[in-house]
TrEMBL record:
Record keywords, A-Z: Cell outer membrane, Membrane, Signal
Predominant cellular place of this UniProt entry's protein: membrane
Compartments, record wording: Cell outer membrane
Entry GO CC: cell outer membrane
Segments forming domain SusD-like N-terminal: 58-203
Organism domain of life: Bacteria
Domain RagB/SusD intervals: 327-587
Family annotation (InterPro entries): SusD-like_N, SusD_RagB_dom, TPR-like_helical_dom_sf
Keyword Membrane (UniProt): yes
Family: Belongs to the SusD family.
Protein name in the entry: Starch-binding associating with outer membrane
Amino acid sequence: MKNIIKILVLSSLLTGCDDLFEPAIENNLGFEYMYENAGYAEGVLSNAYTRIPSASYSFNDVATDDAVSNDAANSYRKMVAGAWQSDNDPTERWRNCRAAIQYLNLFLANADKVHWADDELAAKMYNDRLKGEAYGLRAMYMYYLLQAHGGWTADGKLLGVPIVTEPEEASTDFNYSRATFEDCMKAFYADASKALELLPTDYGDRTSESEIPSKYLNEGANLTQYNRVFGLKFRGRISGRIVEAIRSQAALLAASPAFAAGNTTTWQNAADYAANVLDRINGVAGMDADGGTWYKNKEIESLGSGECPPEILWRGTKSSSNTLEKDNYPPSIYGKGRINPTQNLVDAFPMLDGTPISASGISYDASNPYANRDPRLAAYILYNGTKAGVNNKVITTAADGTTNDALNKEEGYSTRTGYYMRKLLRQDINLDPTVNSTQEHYQARIRYTEIYLNYAEAANEAFGPTGKGSHAYSAYDVIKAIRSRAGITGGDLYLESIKDNKDKMRELIRNERRLELCFEGFRFWDLRRWKANWNTTAMGVSITGDATKAYSPIEVDTRTYKDYMYYGPIPYSEILKFNALEQNQGW
């Protein structure tokens, strides 16, 4: 991504965009300058890359039953306390995504006129690739908009957002109505298809002319020309593989209970699109054995620009930092302890043999609750008595603990639930002010594990737990592989016992998604698209005693969501400005 974040100063963008500025900027360079300066034209496209919502972790998990925040100013904490309104929406994506689409429309309307290169064939390939990126990004932003703002109106229509495919100018009538959700999905699929026609599956330097696509080889392209346009240096930009993954995400959203009645995308469509992605890595056999700990694997240090390890399909820029650790380490190792996992999430981790802790006749011991549990629990959550940080300090979260790690010991620093987040954090960072070390980090925009779980969910609904449709693997096969990777032992008898029960398998798939993707910003959206109960009180644990400890449940935060909140609002300011916009019901 380093190559594309060199964004041009767009404050002097184009004469056709005077409406973006007040007052209008004089002496704009104009379209003619854009046509003769490829770098300037590419800056318009690059603007859309800078608006990708996943540029940093949102930790909207604290608006669910998975976590709470100890930061009184946290916008999601305020949201669950009743402050969520159409004019106060921390989940809002309307303005950013629609602004990105405006830049993309501007680029697509003018790309054919730009002098991309003196070499005529190279120029054609540049134009194809960059337009492919624009179509792929526009599809992605449509998905984000539908996820955040698609919803049912008071008169029973499932609407999406306005479909705008041409540049907007000062004379444009901006009073658009919202298109149906179905039409938005059609627009999404159309853009995704155009992107796939123009983009390579992956960027990389080819070593043989036989690797050059026939459409360019037949026009006389050689290796030098092809690698100049589609080579390794462009890794990190949106590719065909990434577009296929985004198509899987959007199809899963559309097929889900919250939206299924208002569009024609089916569970089978969602399964097929996920399989398109997974088949490229040999299906279940391609699952990365270390995928569950991608955020701390030693491979991070050696990753080249835009290069992804086996678990990661698309990632953000790698950088050396300690911001996540400063925010989320326990206070005894110089952190603020911001994200506090709930007892609800802790209870969702099964026993070591894969059996839920709520099942009868199991070895779960309430007086020793963390023993013989799924290894992901200790990997992702710091509980009382575990060690953390570069010096393996024992973290005591008990209510009668003596350090600031203890339950509610110091407001704004100590845990409110008895737990701290461990996942995503590098434990080889020392935040002692005399050291203040950093390590390499990157954010996973799309993980293969997400796509595996997309497939499992959709395939279970479309074909049943062990059905495969036209594919080589089933929902059962995927979940078995994920749980085996996690360290579930004993042949996973629980999975075997439910593999012919679609309803039980659905519960298990949803729970595996909860565990595997925790703290990565999925559960908030998942609960909404499932129309699942999301008013569960966020629970914690109060631990007291020395040799014999008492574990007492405590209520930490209540959730009082209304049913209409499964669908986010159109921003109130937009409703005020444009009377053609219909608000989602309830807002």
